[in-house]
Amino acid sequence: LIYAQDPSADVLGTLLGHGVPGLVSKEINGVQVYYSGAPMLSSAVLRGIAARAGVHIYNFRDEATYANGKFLAIHTAEAGVRQIRLPRVTDVYDVYKGKVIARQTDRFSVALPVRQTVFYFLGSEQERKGQ
């Protein structure tokens, strides 16, 4: 059984059935370092680590989410309302439906059906039209 034994590390989780540190974090030379005794970490844990490091998270659900500077695509695993966070204030345009979803915002909510792909343009009307 391999586990963390550093008393200066922050214990984020223990190994089930053993009660020993299984997921720890520590800053070393200005870099946040993680150790996991588990062979695989859940997507929720990885998202938490990414968010803690300052990585922007668009969608906190376990769904395929693709983004670049101007486009955002999500393929839904289940139906429901999504709380989408954007890295900057912008307009949001639904490419498939041809309509504005939101204006000048850094977040929006949208109800989506199961197994659907949505495709959004992030930018102004002039940028969308290529002007």
Description:
The model has no long low-confidence stretch (mean pLDDT 94). The strands form 2 sheets. The chain has a 5-stranded antiparallel β-sheet with strand order 4-5-8-6-7, with no helix packed on it. A 3-stranded antiparallel β-sheet has the order 1-2-3, with no helix packed on it. It is mainly beta and 131 residues long. The chain has helices spanning 43-52, 125-128; strands at 10-14, 21-28, 31-36, 64-67, 71-75, 80-94, 99-112, 117-122. It contains 2 helices and 8 strands, in the order E-E-E-H-E-E-E-E-E-H. The relative contact order is 0.13. 11% of the residues lie in helices and 48% in strands. The radius of gyration is 19 Å and the shape is elongated.
N- and C-termini, Cα separation: 61 Å
Mean pLDDT: 94
Strand order of the largest sheet: 4-5-8-6-7
Radius of gyration: 19 Å
Structural class call reads mainly beta
Number of helices: 2
Order of helices and strands: EEEHEEEEEH
Globally, the shape reads elongated
Poorly predicted tracts of residues: none
Q: What portion of residues is helical?
A: 10-25%
- Percent of residues in β-strands: over 45%
The largest sheet, given as strand count, sense and whether it forms a barrel, is: 5 strands, antiparallel
Number of strands: 8
